[in-house]
Amino acid sequence: MDCIFCRIAAGEIPATIVARTDHAIAFRDLHPQAPTHLLVVPTEHVGSAAHLSRGAAARVLGEIAALATTVAAELGLEAGYRMVINTGPEGGQTVDHLHLHLLGGRQFHWPPG
Ligand code: 5GP
Ligand code: ZN
């Protein structure tokens, strides 16, 4: 298994895990782009959002989005935050295991780069 996020989920690579459910984990990004920068990933390997079947999409995306909003509240991000799912090469995805970025603690701008 050479997937970094599968190995983090399995406890084979260290990460600062902030929260965990039966199906997802939230851990701190190695190169944070904001004072709070977490990655929320399904425990089971999925290459990207584009790899989800129609049947699995609502469940898996719902699971990671719900964990992200729970963690955002727990971390006190009431001023706001951003959730991002980079998908595919043009989407800026660099790790091929579906992940949601939860960023907070500073002002974000639009449009994104
Ligand atoms: P992407 O560019 O695919 O949307 O985001 C991948 C993210 O994973 C990047 O923000 C990068 O800093 C983070 N990352 C890459 N390798 C590791 C790692 O080994 N541990 C952690 N915690 N984050 C990682
Ligand atoms: Zn994986």
Record keyword descriptors for this entry.
single chain; 113 residues; alpha+beta; 5-stranded antiparallel β-sheet; 2 helices; 5 strands; globular; binds guanosine-5'-monophosphate; binds zinc ion
State the end-to-end distance. 32 Å
Q: What integer is the average pLDDT?
A: 97
Largest sheet: 5 strands, antiparallel
What small ligands are held by the chains?
guanosine-5'-monophosphate, zinc ion
Shape: globular
Strand fraction band?
15-25%
Question: Could you explain how this protein is built, in words?
Answer:
There is one protein chain. With 113 residues, the chain is α+β, with helices and mostly antiparallel strands. The protein is 24% helix and 22% strand. Strands 1-2-3-5-4 form a five-stranded antiparallel β-sheet, with helices on one face. Strand 2 (24-28) and strand 3 form a beta hairpin. The radius of gyration is 13 Å and the shape is globular. It starts with a helix and ends in a 9-residue tail after the last strand. The model has no long low-confidence stretch (mean pLDDT 97). The structure holds guanosine-5'-monophosphate (5GP) and zinc ion.
Task: Outline the fold blueprint.
Blueprint: H1 4-9, E1 17-20, E2 24-28, E3 36-42, H2 54-74, E4 81-84, E5 100-104
Antiparallel strand pairs: 1-2, 2-3, 3-5, 4-5
The structure holds guanosine-5'-monophosphate and zinc ion.
Summarize the structure.
The N and C termini lie far apart (32 Å). The chain is of the alpha+beta class.
